[in-house]
Design goal:
Number of helices: 2
Shape: globular
Helix content: 10-25%
Order of helices and strands: HEEEEEHEEEEE
CATH superfamily: Lipid/polyisoprenoid-binding, YceI-like
Strand content: 35-45%
Number of domains: 1
CATH topology: Lipocalin
Length: 175
C-alpha cells in the first residue's frame, strides 16, 4: 500500500510540475530614464514614458515589452520648435498622442538582445526591431529611424533631417 501511495504522490507532483507557468521578472521604470534623439537638424528628448516590462534573460520566451511615450512631452530646448514638432505637420500630438512599441519576440544577439515587434508612430504601424542591452538593471538602446517611414512631415521630405538617431536609457527596479 505504501508503494502505491508513494507512486501516486510522485505522479501527482510530476504532473503538477508540467503545468507550472514560468514567468519572466516584472520591472518598474525608475526615475532618471532618458529618450533622446539627434540629427543634423532637430535634436531633443521625450519624457512621459509608461511601460509594462517582463524580462528575464534566462527565459526570453515569456519576456515582453509594451511602452508608450507621450508625444506632447517633446523638448527640443526651443519653445517654437516644440510647438512646431507637436503640430499637425510633424507629430500631430493632438491626433496621435503616443508613440507605442509592443514586442512580439525577444532574442539574444551577439551584442545584447533584440525585441521584435510593432512600432506605432503618427498612426503608422510598422515591424521594428529594437536592439538593447540589460546591465545592472538598466535597459539601453540606440538605433536610427527614418521619420518619412511614419509619414512625419512627408509633404516636405527635404525639410529637416529624415533620419534621427535615438538613444534610450531606462533604469528599472523590481516592483
Amino acid at each position: 500500500m505504501k508503494k502505491t501511495i508513494y507512486l501516486l504522490t510522485s505522479f501527482v507532483i510530476i504532473a503538477a510540475s508540467a503545468f507550472t507557468v514560468i514567468k519572466s521578472q516584472d520591472w518598474k521604470v525608475s526615475e532618471g530614464y532618458s529618450i533622446k534623439f539627434s540629427s543634423s537638424d532637430p535634436s531633443g528628448e521625450f519624457s512621459g514614458l509608461k511601460a509594462t516590462i517582463s524580462f528575464d534573460e534566462k527565459n526570453l520566451a515569456t519576456s515582453k515589452f509594451e511602452a508608450t511615450v507621450d508625444v506632447a512631452t517633446i523638448n527640443t530646448g526651443n519653445g517654437m520648435k516644440n510647438t512646431h514638432a507637436k503640430s499637425e505637420k510633424w507629430f500631430d500630438a493632438e491626433k496621435y498622442p503616443v508613440i507605442k512599441f509592443t514586442s512580439s519576440a525577444i532574442t539574444k544577439t551577439v551584442t545584447g538582445f533584440a525585441a521584435k515587434g510593432i512600432l506605432e508612430m503618427h498612426g503608422v504601424q510598422k515591424e521594428f526591431t529594437l536592439p538593447f542591452t540589460f546591465v545592472n538593471n538598466v535597459f539601453t538602446s540606440a538605433f536610427d529611424i527614418n521619420r518619412l517611414d511614419y509619414n512625419i512631415n512627408s509633404t516636405e521630405p527635404a525639410h529637416g533631417a529624415a533620419t534621427l538617431h535615438v538613444d534610450i536609457k531606462v533604469p528599472v527596479t523590481k516592483p
